[in-house]
Design brief:
Layout: H1 2-16, E1 23-25, E2 28-30, H2 32-35, H3 40-48, E3 54-58, E4 61-65, E5 82-87, E6 96-100, E7 106-111, E8 114-120, E9 127-133, E10 136-143, E11 149-157, E12 163-172, E13 186-189, E14 192-194, H4 196-207
Parallel strand pairs: 3-8
Antiparallel strand pairs: 1-2, 3-4, 5-6, 6-7, 7-8, 9-10, 10-11, 11-12, 12-13, 13-14
């Protein structure tokens, strides 16, 4: 398995053609110090080339992982993660990197000389995707595969990883015999109860249903 990861990592570098950020000096090779001066796109390139890690923040704690940590394969020898497109996900005019994978994958943001895990899928009760709504990009986590509910949590960020706005959009129908919502179900938008008609209209506006 370790050999397969190494081969996949080499293949990824050859496929993407990313240029090394390491530089030869009279003191040897330097990498992370040089990364501090890179632009956001260059930092994302450097992460994908396996030359700098991505930082994951959990409260005041930080941990890191490298691109080869994502080179997992399943029992059918299929790659679990793959490199996706780059989209401005935090409305700062700079693109973030999408890593396709389980539960919506991961979104990576480059800022202040580092790459950060911007958002990630959190299981079947927190599938990750993004949407364009109200002249901005919103990060969405949803739970729509379980019985009795359709739950969406939308978050809008700024370029420093701070939450600018967030709200819940949901339909709950726990007692429905056919596991579908109707006029008597409980609909919520921004902590306020709404009608089924309003819920469906907002769903079309936010998600393009």
């Amino acid at each position: 398995m370790h050999f397969i990861k190494i081969m996949l990592f080499i293949w990824l570098q050859l496929l993407t053609g990313y240029e090394s950020i390491y530089r030869e000096t009279i003191f040897g090779r330097t990498g992370l110090d040089f990364a501090a001066g890179l632009e956001s796109e260059e930092l994302l390139d450097a992460f994908l080339a396996g030359e700098i890690p991505a930082i994951y923040k959990d409260g005041n704690k930080e941990s890191s992982y490298w691109v080869y940590d994502l080179l997992w394969i399943d029992e059918k020898n299929n790659s679990v993660y793959s490199v996706g497109e780059r989209v401005d996900l935090d409305n700062d005019g700079e693109n973030e990197q999408i890593i396709n994978g389980p539960y919506g994958g991961k979104y990576l943001d480059a800022r202040n000389g580092k790459v950060y895990v911007f958002a990630e899928g959190e299981g079947t009760s927190g599938e990750l995707f993004f949407t364009y709504y109200d002249d901005a990009v919103w990060i969405v986590h949803c739970d729509i595969t379980h019985v009795g509910r359709q739950m969406y949590w939308l978050t809008r960020y700024d370029g420093d990883g701070n939450i600018v706005d967030e709200f819940q959009f949901s339909a709950e129908y726990w007692d429905s015999p056919i596991s579908q919502y109707d006029e008597n179900s409980d609909f919520t938008f921004r902590d306020k109860k709404i009608s089924m008609e309003e819920y469906e209209a907002l769903g079309k506006e936010i998600f393009g249903w």
